[in-house]
Design goal:
By secondary structure, this protein is of the alpha/beta class. It folds into 2 domains: 120 residues, D-Maltodextrin-Binding Protein, domain 2, CATH 3.40.190; 101 residues, D-Maltodextrin-Binding Protein, domain 2 (3-Layer(aba) Sandwich), CATH 3.40.190.10. Helix content is 42%, strand content 21%. It has a 6-stranded mixed β-sheet. A 5-stranded mixed β-sheet has the order 7-6-8-5-9. Helix 3 links the parallel strand 1 and strand 2. The radius of gyration is 27 Å and the shape is elongated. 38% of the residues are buried.
């Protein structure tokens, strides 16, 4: 090899190395930009009984997913389901009963592969903090109990479960004159907290969240349909990938810790 040419070898090697580094950096930049998720805005329609738990979960989720902006629309599951059927722009539906989710599935409004049952709950009889002491649901027929708050059975899942329970106990028709119907379970709770009614029937999780009521009885689970909370991504979601990721998170261990904290059971 000519000695004069060998002095250029380090320069050539350095140039090749620089070129390789530049190409690698460009590839890295390109791959990074494609993997970086775009901002997503999710609207989650959820049963109002889920509101405290989902508020905490939102904080946890957005802490590690700052690009995802979550807006909750809380209400009675029946009303929320009707809104979705009428075209409301919703990405995820989290219901307090399977009936409303079944209605959306039959209307082909769900991404069916995303549907899953997540949570369970219990039905309880409550009174104001220092209200009447009750040891049996049949005591609701007593003269001292004049007004009983329950959810509207036609659209509020807790009302549907309550109607089933009272019917099986042979009390439904007898209690009709006393019933005060709430538009969602939180309104039923408020009626009892305020003392405007003598008793009410709500979910255990709602009763647990209030220091103004006392749980008097827990309904046997064989008196009503299983209380199950299903979740699914809506087919018309504007951000289906982000919605699927959020549903996966709701089903994960971190979210389960939060749900258990607020008194929910986990579907196994």
């Amino acid at each position: 090899m000519n000695f004069k040419n060998t002095r250029f070898i380090p320069l050539i090697v350095a140039a090749i190395a620089s070129l390789a580094l530049l190409i690698s950096w460009n590839l890295f930049q390109r791959n990074s930009s494609t993997k970086t998720p775009k901002s997503a805005y999710l609207t989650v329609s959820a049963a109002i009984s889920l509101s405290p738990a989902l508020a905490e979960i939102k904080t946890v989720y957005q802490g590690s997913n700052p690009n995802v902006n979550i807006t909750y629309n809380f209400g009675a599951s029946g009303a929320l389901g009707q809104q979705i059927q009428q075209g409301a722009p919703v990405d995820v539906f989290f219901s307090a009963a399977t009936k409303q989710m079944n209605d959306l599935q039959q209307a082909n409004l769900l991404l069916n592969e995303t549907r899953r049952n997540l949570l369970t709950n219990r039905l309880v009889l409550i009174t104001p903090k220092n209200g009447v002491v009750l040891s049996d649901f049949k005591q609701l027929t007593d003269a001292r109990i004049k007004r009983i708050a329950i959810g509207e059975p036609k659209s509020v899942p807790v009302g549907q479960y309550t109607q089933e329970m009272l019917t099986k106990l042979g009390l439904w028709q007898q209690l009709q004159p006393k019933l005060v119907l709430g538009s969602n379970v939180r309104q039923v709770l408020t009626f009892v907290e305020s003392g405007n009614v003598d008793a009410g029937i709500v979910y255990m999780t709602d009763a647990k969240a209030s220091d103004k009521v006392t749980v008097r009885l827990t309904a046997a689970e064989n008196l009503h349909s299983p209380i199950v909370y299903p979740v699914a991504v809506i087919r018309s979601s504007r951000h289906p990938d982000a919605a699927k990721m959020f549903v996966e998170f709701l089903a994960g261990d971190r979210a389960k810790i939060v749900f258990k904290k607020y008194g929910f059971g986990i579907v196994r």
